[in-house]
Structure prediction request, 204 residues.
Amino acid sequence: MALPWHILLVAASSYLLGSIPASYIAGRLLRGIDLRGHGSGNLGAANAFRVLGFKAAVPVLLFDIGKGFAAVFLFPRFGGGGTAFALLAALAVVLGHNYSLFMRFSGGKGVGTTAGAFLALAPAATAMCFALWIVALLATRIVSVASIAAAAFLPVSIAIADRALDRLTHPAIMILACAVAIIVIVKHRSNMARLRAGTEKRIF
Prediction:
């Protein structure tokens, strides 16, 4: 039986891991700058790419994905394991990335961290979302379009994977997929405004 401190431990450890701002650290170490004041002002891999370059963005992206995966794979054990704790860890790590304790509750948009969390929860569905992200990025050369498309596709990809693999994913995972998809899309509202205005920058 889960105790309140088990729940708190899983949630807090996942949130704190998510709060580690890899792109901010990269900006400080490589250029001595606060990435929030450069490019789009977002603390994510895409802005790290724009401001710091490819060699900085790749480790940032891998770290963001890794912390999402690690939180879901490791921290539920603090509460005894199980789907409920995995879902709690996934939600907390994404919220930590988007609203970092160390960045006065600012942060990224949660794409990489969500990908890492769902890589642990639903790997086949996450692979489909990644494939869509690549296709959308190559077609439009706009990271926000690719990210919004992949986020919106996440619940659909889980349903497709279930049908293909003849299984039924836990309903709570589908609910979480819908919730984090909404979070990611809402975090891209400024990008959507620029897309409507035709001013969103292309990555290449």
